[in-house]
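Narrative of activities, Objective 1.

The group set out to show that a structural description can be obtained from nothing but a protein's sequence at a throughput compatible with the screening campaign. Below is one input-output pair from the validation batch, recorded exactly as produced.
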Amino acid sequence: MTATDAREPFSVERALDTDLDAWTRDVLRRHFDPESGSPYWLKQRPELGFDPLDITRYDELSAFGNFDLTQLRDMDPFDMLPQAVPRPLSGRVYESGGTTGSPCRVFYTERMAQHHAAWLHRGQQVAGFEPGRTWVFAGPSGPHIIGNGMERVTRLSDSVLYGIDLDPRWVKELIRGSRLREMNQYVDHVTGQVIDILASREVDYLETTPALFQVLLRKRPELVAKLAGIGVSGTHISPSQYADFKAAIAGDVVGLRYGNTFGCGMGLPVEEGSGTMAYVSNYPQVTHAVVDRDDPTRVVGYGELGRVRLTVLHEDLFVPNVLERDQAVRHDTGPQWPCDGVANVEPLTKSNSAPEGLY
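Output recorded for this entry:
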């Protein structure tokens, strides 16, 4: 698979066979082409101090330094998009959750949306979710990519989807203002809608955040107990939560997904009693590394704890070396996967000024 070949539908199988160094060269050629590259990166090129087209290996992307996502708050999202993408543009601008301030914005081409949905679908297959079932999704939609991804993957799996919207920004605003009574009222509002669906019709699977599922389990354990499986999306879930969630449902299918607007990782099967919850990146367009907290150019050893670093190497979006607000253990995914994984993800720090809310 090459970065310039977007004519065929995205295939996870083909993606997993991609040579990461060759992919890196293709993506850089696309974004730095003088005639058809990305306006943002072409403007940055004279200031880089090196020729990006001289980079031949993925590991050499460290030359770009750490990309500051806050630039995307005010930037025209189309400036990150190669001119090679046919105009007029057709697609969605998605936004981050706004944990640390105004949301960052990114334009998703159809190819990017396909990639996101295909990996979400693969994650469901690996976890053991069956096609042709009925789902409830209770999570962020509107400006957030996960809602769109759930709609797409429902079609891929010939399933039916009920959707309940969650506004993560409002929850975070309430937490920042110490308005906990109002936050609890909002949580009741969201979970009440989920309960209404679970109590009135046959539902096989529920996709939501760990925090919302905990509330549902506390409020209506008898409804949760009827579920054949749950998908847990967001950024943080502990091994003890995973065990509790799995014990609470009728089936034994628990799917995990880690990530955000810019890049995601698919949950790998959890070995009972291992205490390890690992994720593999949506390769090669998304890669995660675990780096030294004091020296983010150094990748830590397997089994060591460090800060998560995200790189987006999409045909239509190049964002190198983003330091996430998470820490994780570097995980060896073995011969089945072509890249490292991250395991046991948790926040670097916890603060009311930058709350994760219901994620």
